[in-house]
From TrEMBL:
Keywords: Membrane, Transmembrane, Transmembrane helix. It comes from Candidatus Methylobacter favarea. The chain crosses the membrane at residues 6-23, 30-49, 79-103. This is Exlusion protein FxsA. InterPro entries: FxsA. It comes from the Bacteria. The lineage of its organism: Bacteria, Pseudomonadati, Pseudomonadota, Gammaproteobacteria, Methylococcales. The keyword Transmembrane applies. GO terms for cellular component: membrane. The keyword Amino-acid biosynthesis does not apply. It holds the Pfam family FxsA.
């Protein structure tokens, strides 16, 4: 399957599953506790998003200051953004996925997978660390006024 078909199925199936799960939980614990639980997870998610986002931003800035390409931090920032959006979406399935995105160990593994399998194979700038002489063009520069 192509990635757009998978995303389309995800966008189509998840809302139905969320509604079903919300109705089931609401039938067991009641409507008001269910609403409270959904709001609580959104607030907790926003708080965790803030903490994790600032920590990743600080690591990004430290990497830049040391002259290191902040590849992991860039990918982790995107994962945190997706996790925050999932946590702010009402529902328990999206909350579980969102909380998984905010766990540093899980996020680091996802970022490592993306960098190893998608960026390096695509011939991105991370490949230059292994063979810098491959893309070097010798020459001279002179500015004439």
């Amino acid at each position: 399957m192509k990635i757009f078909q998978i995303i389309f199925l995800f966008v189509l199936i998840i809302p139905f599953a969320e509604i079903y799960l919300l109705l089931q939980v609401g039938g067991i614990i009641g409507a008001l506790p269910t609403v409270f639980l959904v709001v609580f997870t959104a607030v907790l998610g926003a708080w965790l998003l803030k903490i994790q986002g600032f920590a990743t931003l600080q690591r990004f800035q430290a990497s830049i200051a040391q002259g290191i390409v902040p590849a992991y931090e860039i990918i982790e920032g995107s994962i945190i953004l997706v996790g925050g959006a999932l946590l702010l979406t009402p529902g328990f399935i999206t909350d579980m996925l969102g909380f998984a995105c905010l766990i540093p160990q899980v996020r680091r593994k996802i970022a490592g997978y993306v960098i190893e399998n998608h960026l390096i194979q695509a011939g991105g700038h991370f490949n230059q660390a292994k063979s810098p002489e491959k893309d070097v063009l010798e020459g001279e520069f002179r500015k004439e006024e």
